[in-house]
Amino acid sequence: MSVRSKVIEAIQRIAKEQHVTLPALSDDLSLHETGFDSLAFAILVARLEDETGVDPFTISEDAAFPATVGDFVRAYENVPA
Amino acid sequence: MSPREIFALRDYLSPELEGRTISDAHHVVSLTDVLGHTVLGGRLRELAGRSVLLKLSDQLKSGLAMIELDGVVRRMLLCPPDLNPDHLDALIADAEIDAVVSDEPAQWAAKAVALVVAAQLPLQATASAKTERATEWLMLTSGTSGVPKIAGHTLEALTGAIVAEGPARGPAPVWATFYDIRRYGGLQIFLRAVLSGGSMVLSDPHEALGDHVARLNARGVTHISGTPSHWRKLLMSGSAAQFAPGYVRLSGEIADQAVLDGLKVAFPNSSVGHAYASTEAGVGFAVNDGLEGFPANYLGNRNGVEMKVVDGSLRIRSTRTARAYIGRNAAALTDDDGFVDSGDIVELRGDRYYFVGRRGGIINIGGLKVHPEEIEAVINRHANVRMSRAKSRRSPITGGIVVADVILADGTDQARAKEIRDQILDQCRAQLASHKVPAVIRFVEALDVTPAGKLARTDA
After folding, report:
1. Taking CB atoms and an 8 Å limit, are B366 and A39 in contact across chains?
2. pTM over 0.80
3. Which among A18, A46, A57 has CB closest to B440?
4. Are B402 and B435 in contact (CB under 8 A)?
5. How many Å lie between the alpha carbon of B237 and the closest alpha carbon of chain A?
6. pLDDT confidence of residue B69
7. Cα–Cα distance, B192 to B418 (Å, whole number)
8. What is the ipTM for the molecules in this complex?
9. I want to staple B160 with a disulfide (CB 3.0 to 4.6 A). Which of A34, B221, B320, B435 is the partner?
10. B350 touching chain A per CB within 8 A
């Protein structure tokens, strides 16, 4: 499974658990517009760390938290191996 | 005015009661004629009036030494097996120790202790001793780090709950415990065995659980106690099926409904009760209605034990609490009114109080306080869960999130793991605030249990 589909699947699973109705997940959708609160994002980052072995937001201290869904996915795609 | 009569352990060991024993995995010692024997090589007189550190490699010699020393020495400090040797010097100074009972006397050659007495088996015949004073019993608290505190007790305080219950009906019980008898929970059981006219079967940390249960059966154990973690381990082991004690007791940790129900199913003909006790607060109460928590009307004064709730924490005043912390810079054990603050947080729901966790065990989730025990209790309610541990994990978003490690019950189909995880999460969402719902649930084979029998909470 590609990194992108792993991330999208995790977002959809957590949305279902948290009873959040997601809009269509396009790359330029702002994370704010997903309807996720900070707890939902915290769950997402923790689950993805378990699944992929990385947490791109803790690796580098000055990593800015992404603004859009596309930025978020790329943060996982661009992790150095 | 005549002085009040002083009882020591020897005064409960009448040679008229035949067939009483204390045993471990290797030895069986008669309690019937124990008073005519010595584990101290006949050197009890040298120890009279001294402050004795009791540091032995096994529980059997420890128990026999307690019987011999009580009522003769000024104080005895019980060292549990997991005591960090780096703390010995501080404990020796604080407890004014001037003698040691050890089964490795050579190790004490370099220490500045005036007298070292070797303990050894087999017992040797000796003239029986007489009770001459009320010995102070010093026990160590089971805190996680730093030098443990020394809680000073009298035998009268330690046995207050046992005496209050009165003699057991029917044949003399055979007691066992998963605890070590050098800790409060285990000592209570050892004292019950001595005072009740019964026998005692000790645990052995090196013995496999199945062998331990076989030994409990072989010795005819009728009454047995342990922490909820001990009991969950037994329920998971598959060894419970061969065992049918009359009385099953839990203490030392929160007994949630899941473990109480699990024991009732495993031991349909046993009474299952949970007791509230701590090294400092002594034995508070026992609950025998099969339900978690305790009735709200236990607060106030009940059988000489007074309880109140201050800032959510249970406070206890009774003649069974420790007398004081011992040592030069020891903190006060009680508040100004003589109540011990247990640090155990309770919550009133309906007409019952429920334990939600330890004040010191709170984890911080995005600035909100969470008791891991409260989350575990909800997870443990799932029929396929045997045991769980909730803890915090750092999060770049909220600072911390709740994660849970879960052990599935025996025989659970691993293919159902995903389905079970979703059910657990649904259960948590229905019963807990959203920040308390685990973000991640991991299924694990085992969870660490401390030497004191409690779920290890290294991050708490």
Report:
1. yes
2. yes
3. A46
4. yes
5. 29
6. 98
7. 46
8. 0.84
9. B320
10. no
